[in-house]
Design a protein that fits this description.
Blueprint (H helix, E strand, L loop, with lengths): L1 H28 L6 H9 L12 H10 L12 H12 L10 E5 L20 H8 L14 H5 L5 E3 L5 E3 L9 H5 L5 E5 L5 E3 L8 H7 L9 H5 L5 E4 L2 E4 L9 H5 L5 E3 H5 L15
Antiparallel strand pairs: 1-4, 2-3, 5-8, 6-7
């Protein structure tokens, strides 16, 4: 019996040894040489592994760039500098470098300025609240205030404030877009950091002025004063929301001054003009 066990063990050891030699041989025989550019591209990436480029982390994007399956401008975290470095590695023109973008919250509906439907006791996520109640606020377009966006941010660029809104730290925001994708209300937007002009921090698309007034003190009431007062004709109403044509906007500020609910803001001063983590709204101070 013992001899049989020893024989079995010995045979298994020999077989394992032979299989190992065979695997090593075939691995060497059919080895696919790794393109050194993959490692060079990978080293140039920031290593955030956020997936905003559309590939499975920096390793996936590096391989795609090195093999010509992806452009060099998809890394929003690295921005223009990374795009230019990748272009040099690949020996291509870096003129189309990625534009630095940041997330902007298109809502000013704080706890004090909006009307709540009641106390929400369900699963504490924005997505769950929207699915179960439609909205925890009477404005069905506004921020739910439960912080789904802050949980997916990998760069410490979003934090919930005591006012019930997520606040953006523009020093840390990389424009990866994870918060934009996560928000069930679709009220976070990526905006070029260098953009100048006016923007509406409201997403209420209803065309009923009375409905907006009842639900939010800082919502767009569809008065179209901004449209009528813009000297450049840069503003038009689209699906109930004023939209700025940045090719025409001169940042004169007339729309901001005329807006009765102060939902119109200038990007370069009211939004990007402060780098501290403060609300982007009327009365916010740096």
């Amino acid at each position: 019996m013992a001899a049989t066990i020893l024989l079995t063990i010995g045979f298994s050891a020999i077989l394992a040894f032979l299989i190992g030699i065979a695997l090593a041989f075939f691995n060497q025989k059919f080895k696919v040489e790794r393109d050194p550019k993959i490692d060079e591209v990978r080293a140039a990436l920031p290593g955030a592994n956020c997936g905003a480029c559309g590939f499975p982390g920096c390793d996936g994007y590096a391989e795609a760039v090195a093999t010509g399956r992806a452009v060099t401008t998809k890394c929003s975290v690295g921005g223009s500098a990374t795009a230019e470095t990748l272009a040099k590695i690949m020996g291509i023109d870096g003129g189309g470098a990625a534009e630095d973008k940041v997330a902007v919250l298109l809502c000013q509906g704080t706890i004090e300025k909006t009307v709540s439907k009641g106390e929400y006791n369900g699963i504490q996520t924005c997505r769950a609240a929207k699915l179960s109640t439609g909205s925890v606020k009477t404005c069905s377009y506004g921020c739910q205030g439960l912080g789904d966006c802050t949980l997916v941010c990998k760069f410490d660029a979003l934090a919930m404030g005591e006012d019930g809104l997520p606040h953006v730290n523009y020093d840390n925001c990389t424009g990866c877009g994870l918060c934009v994708e996560e928000c069930p209300q679709k009220i976070l937007a990526l905006v070029p950091r260098s953009r100048v002009g006016s923007i509406v921090l409201c997403s209420n698309r209803t065309t009923l002025k009375a409905s907006v007034i009842k639900t939010c003190k800082v919502g767009c009431i569809k008065c179209e004063i901004c449209v009528k007062s813009c000297p450049e004709g840069a503003i038009s109403m689209v699906n109930g929301i004023p939209v700025t044509d940045y090719a025409k906007c001169t940042s004169c500020g007339i729309c901001v001054e005329k807006c009765p609910t102060k939902c119109y803001k200038l990007l370069e001063t009211d939004v990007f003009g402060t780098k501290k983590m403060v609300p982007v709204m009327e009365g916010a101070q740096a």
